[in-house]
Amino acid sequence: MPAGARVLDLCTGTGALALAAAAHGAGSVTAVDISRRALAAVWVNSRLRRLPVRPLRGGLAEAARGGPFDVVLANPPYVPSPVPAAGAARAWDAGPDGRIVLDQVCAQASSLVAPGGYLMMVHSAVSGPGKSLERLRAAGMTPAVVATRSIPFGPVMRARAAFLEAAGLIAAEQRHEELVVIRADRS
Fold it and tell me: Where do the Methyltransferase small domain residues begin and end (predicted)?
């Protein structure tokens, strides 16, 4: 990350990425989430560590008002779900194919990222990284998968396995997923 970079952490959760960016020399860090509890955690964590992170409640529209940013970090909800998300499940549920928020991030990437900047986004291969690459290209970005890691299903994916199998999103008896990190640069 460039020293002094303006950083946006979308779907920040507890703010781990925002805090890391602030600790590694970002000039400013905005941590965005729809959850009040998540933002309270960001606020507490940033104060305890004396790191300058600005919590902001909202989604992409609110985030875009402060942009564009040199670096955008995103760990959006990406777990396919049979019913609309409510309550705490909004942190991970993302519609039947897991792409409700991913598609929005891809479509708005070029307006969130400053020229010469980049987006780093993580999601499960179950949610179609090929689609993310296509949509980021369509938005004028230059994307590439820069890291992958296979992990056992966590509690949410284990509970959702029958739905994922029935939807054809995973193989029968599959209980591992590949996490994918995509970097998308803006010229």
Answer: 5-124
Prediction pTM value: 0.92
Determine contact, residues 37/100, Cβ cutoff 8 Å: no
> In the structure encoding, which two tokens stand for residue 36, read together?
């009040």
Pick the residue with more confidence: 13 or 93? Answer: 13
Q: What is the pLDDT of residues 162-186, one digit of tens each?
A: 999 999 999 999 999 999 999 999 9
What is each CA distance from 61 to 33, 67, 109, 169, in whole angstroms?
Answer: 11, 10, 12, 30
How confident is the model over 133-144, as pLDDT tens digits?
Answer: 999 999 999 999
Q: Across the strands, what pairs with 14?
A: none
> For residue 21, what is the domain's CATH number?
3.40.50.150
**Structure-token pair, residue 186:** 């803006």
The helix or strand, by DSSP H or E, that contains position 41, with its residue range, turns out to be helix 36-48
Whether residue 26 is contained in a domain is answered as yes
Other beta carbons within 10 Å of 12: 27
Split into its structural domains, the chain has a count of: 1
Considering just the CA atoms, what is the radius of gyration of the chain in Å?
Answer: 16
What's phi and psi for 26, nearest 5 deg?
-60, 145
Q: Whole domain around residue 53: which residue ranges?
A: 6-150+181-185
Residue 29 burial (C-beta neighbours within 10 Å; 0-12, 13-18, 19+): buried
Structural domain contains residue 122: yes
